[in-house]
Amino acid sequence: MIIKKYSCKRFAGIKDKDITFKENLNVILGPNEAGKSTLVEGIYYTLFKSSKLGYKTLEDREFRDKFMPIQAGDSIDGEVIISDRTGDYKVTREWGTAPFSRMILPDSQVIKNEESIADYLKDVLVFGEGTYSSIVFSKQLHIKSAIEKIIQNKEAKGEVSSLL
Beta strands of 57-99 (E only): which ranges? Predict the structure, then answer.
């Protein structure tokens, strides 16, 4: 799986971003508080976070508190294009007053059901969400915590050990 592109109109403090990644290694550089971590989180949540946010779960409340604009609107969004050997997959999500999820498959078929999108992503993304959360989308600040998560997460631990 290759991440080819990330776009958003608004995700937390990021506005009107359209970033195309090159093949191989990409490095995100910038001063403190420039939005580097938020960019990484935008990609992660676009792939893994349901657009339907509840008010009861701590996870949804924390997501809303961290990323939803207080005075600048009632929604946030993200779009990620990923690619594998079968082609490009475009995942689009919007969180807020009008939640929306869509995945466009390589054959141009459009999927809007959250569970179906999650199922397709399980097939396209080589590893499980735990591995991506612990390793691929880990921020520099959280490397120690990421290693601890890998050790505690059987799925991630097994996948990492098979890579090594």
Answer: 75-84, 87-96
Q: pTM to 2 decimals?
A: 0.80
Measured between its terminal Cα atoms, the distance across the chain in Å is 18
Q: What is the pLDDT of residues 56-85, one digit of tens each?
A: 899 999 999 899 876 656 899 999 999 999
Which residue in 14, 12, 15 sits closest to 66, CA to CA? 12
Angle between helices 154-163 and 143-152 (to 10 degrees): 100
Q: How far apart are CA 85 and CA 64, in angstroms?
A: 35
Residue 110 CA, chain-centre distance (Å), reads 19
Report d(CA 41, CA 90) in Å as an integer. Answer: 17
- CA-wise closest residue to 156 among 133, 123, 125: 133
Which residue in this structure is represented by tokens 């990492």?
160
For residue 161, is pLDDT > 70?
no
